[in-house]
Amino acid sequence: MARKVAVVTGGNKGIGYAVVKELCQKFNGDVILAARDEARGKDAVEQLKALNLNPVYHQLDIDDTSSISQLKDFLHKEYGGLDILVNNAAIAYKMASTTPDAEQAENSINTNFFGTLNVCKALFPILRPHARVVNVSSSAGRLSNIPNKELQKKFLVSNLTEEELCGLMKEFVSDAKAGLKREKGWAHTNYMMSKIGVSALTFLQQREFDKDSREDLVVNAVHPGYVNTDMTSGKGVRTIEEGAEPIVYAALLPPNIKSPKGEYIWEDSKVVSWV
Ligand SMILES: NC(=O)c1ccc[n+]([C@@H]2O[C@H](COP(=O)([O-])OP(=O)(O)OC[C@H]3O[C@@H](n4cnc5c(N)ncnc54)[C@H](OP(=O)(O)O)[C@@H]3O)[C@@H](O)[C@H]2O)c1
């Protein structure tokens, strides 16, 4: 039997680092600490080795399709598949950022939504039966953060396709560039829109998994809580280990579980309504 393997994107710090740490202790297989920067990634691996844990570093920039495809080739060659994928890597601009809003909108959607989607498109074909995928979303990724009810409905279409969802994300960026975000009633921040996209993506991915010939593929979106990391400038109230808890829970769901499956999971590991 091939050795099992888990991948955590953005594993070099914050919540991703804590997820790698926890999986190294609980998952019966190798854990790949994927990071875009080699020095930061290898440094994180060394920190975990000092705790007698043994993650494997691999480079991954989710903005770079060639980097994604190199990770896929590595997984395919070394493991012949993939058992757990935690899509954790993301960016969030600070309130004080002087980057023009249109640029922030484009970069936030490109990394958090399209980067995550590109990782999924590359790695889903090598998922093994019983694989678990966790898309790290946020409370910001709740549909109710979109004030315009007509826009909300577009995300709620029961058979929404990936193409249609990508179209909505592009429409948002285009409205941001035209200065029409408020007028059109999109969510108030670019980060919110990127995470609403990640949540909606999760639900349609599960519908595809349900039709897949491979048995028991499960994907969930998780809100880790307000966590003390660089992203929250140290203001979060939960530790990174607490933030990792619901993510690791979703990553290690037992075989043939009926629920949570294609759900939105809160920081206490309970399923909540996305709407
Ligand atoms: N902290 C919270 O309160 C909170 C709440 C809700 C949801 N979340 C979500 O939880 C996840 C982790 O957040 P965090 O708070 O741990 O943030 P963080 O400390 O800022 O860590 C983000 C990680 O993502 C990586 N990353 C960013 N862009 C990347 C790219 N293009 N390719 C590969 N890696 C990239 C970063 O790498 P570098 O070190 O190289 O920059 C870093 O490893 C994110 O999805 C975030 O949206 C966080």
UniProtKB/TrEMBL annotation:
Protein name in UniProt: carbonyl reductase (NADPH)
Keyword Oxidoreductase attributed: yes
Keywords for this protein: NADP, Oxidoreductase
Which family is annotated? Belongs to the short-chain dehydrogenases/reductases (SDR) family.
- Enzyme Commission number(s) of this protein: 1.1.1.184
Signal sequence, renumbered to the chain: none
- Report if keyword Oxidoreductase is assigned: yes
Provide the organism lineage as a comma list: Eukaryota, Metazoa, Ecdysozoa, Arthropoda, Chelicerata
Top-level lineage group = Eukaryota
Note the InterPro entries from the entry: CBR1-like, NAD(P)-bd_dom_sf, SDR_fam
* Name of one Pfam family that matches: adh_short
